[in-house]
Amino acid sequence: xxxQSCCAIDIKDLITLDDVAEELNYGPNGxxxxxxxxLTNNLDWLEEELGNFENDYLIFDLPGQIExxxxxPVMKNIKDFLSKLGYSMCAVYLIDSQxxxxxxxxxxxxxxxxxxxxxxxxxxxxxxxFRECWAxxxxxxxxxxxx
Length: 147
Prior knowledge:
Elements: H1 17-24, H2 28-40, H3 43-50, H4 67-70, H5 74-84, E1 91-96, E2 114-119, H6 128-136, H7 138-141, E3 144-146
Parallel strand pairs: 1-2, 2-3
């Protein structure tokens, strides 16, 4: 997989999805799960990489496969590890409007504060009364953003 992003810490320096696919014959979803589990088994690598930052805000851009947040403890393990290192965290989950029923899923392993960003909300086929409730309900106002 070729991504054109620049980041301070890149898991591809530890393991790549292409290598997993080639060596283990895993597909993309299984390969991502394997890579994230490999990271959790090598958290000393992550700790060493994080050692270069003091009083900085860090953004972890994570894969969108929901299985990583609902079916496996991978993200919980990473979150717990970062908490032990003294990091305060919140999660922002971008979810396509067609999957809005699953918007609570990341909170299984990322307890509040977790924010949900919903894109393509205008494309949803919902009654106007639901849209009004969604937009004005206090439960959603501070953490769910509709884009």
